[in-house]
UniProtKB/TrEMBL annotation:
NCBIfam families: wecG_tagA_cpsF. Keywords: Glycosyltransferase, Transferase. The keyword Disulfide bond does not apply. One of its GO terms (molecular function) is hexosyltransferase activity. InterPro entries: WecG_TagA_CpsF. CDD domains: Glyco_transf_WecG_TagA. This is UDP-phosphate galactose phosphotransferase. Pfam families: Glyco_tran_WecG.
């Protein structure tokens, strides 16, 4: 299960392997105001703005009574462990099978896969940013034996309190991206200022093709 926001859509336009990984997912959920606006312009409105940071904790709160084993893969060293502690507090039935940071070299992949498979994990959370997390899940999810693989972007950073979430009012107005831009302007200005413009330009072109 993956999420698609304007930035991810821009990346998918330039990366055929990422497009294939998204096409291969069982569920791709629309995340953010960019997708909502695109839905309106293309006369195919999205019903809900579903971002992983809100949806995943909610899903875990709604867990049925059986135990769910979760493995966390991604973020900088130390962050997944803090996020795991936070997840454990969400629901008593969540069992943390383990975690690993998301900056491992390629030759460590088999060892990580074996570790996840050994624990017979139900849910694998992959938080390595797009498209790395989606490509990794597309290639390796079957080998992990996990029933569900979720590509969750910056979720661990938020859960661990490493990156502050936008105030509710900002989220309600659909401008959480602006909050993130203020937090990390050096890293994110291209993504949001150029990226949003590029995304909307593509949507506009597509709408002219569809509705000449
Ligand atoms: N990340 C990672 N491995 C990498 C690159 C990124 O684990 O090779 C992590 C990064 O530390 C962060 C997450 O991936 O926790 C995604 O961050 P970003 O803010 O780009 O997330 P998004 O906007 O996709 O939610």
């Amino acid at each position: 299960m993956c999420f698609l926001n304007a930035h991810y859509a821009n990346q998918a336009c330039a990366n055929p392997a990422y497009r294939r990984a998204l096409a291969q997912a069982d569920l791709v959920l629309a995340d953010g105001s960019g997708l909502a606006l695109a839905g309106l312009i293309l006369k195919n409105p999205v019903r809900e703005n579903l971002n992983g940071t809100d949806l995943i904790p909610w899903l875990f709160k709604e867990l049925p009574s059986q135990r769910v084993k979760v493995y966390l893969l991604g973020a900088r060293p130390g962050v997944a462990e803090k996020a795991a502690r936070c997840l454990r507090g969400i629901h008593p039935k969540i069992e943390i099978a383990g975690w690993h940071h998301g900056y491992f070299p390629e030759d460590q992949t088999q060892e990580i896969l074996a570790r996840i498979a050994l624990h017979k994990v139900d849910v694998l959370l992959a938080a390595m940013g797009a498209p790395k997390q989606e490509l990794w899940l597309a290639e390796h999810l079957p080998e992990t034996g996990a029933g569900l693989g979720l590509a969750v972007g910056g979720l661990f950073d938020f859960l661990a309190g490493e990156v502050p979430r936008a105030p509710l009012a900002w989220r309600g107005l659909g401008i959480e991206w602006l909050w993130r831009l203020f937090q990390e302007p050096g890293r994110l200005w291209r993504r949001y200022l150029l990226g949003n413009f590029l995304f909307l330009h593509r949507v506009w072109r597509q709408s002219r093709e569809r509705f000449p």
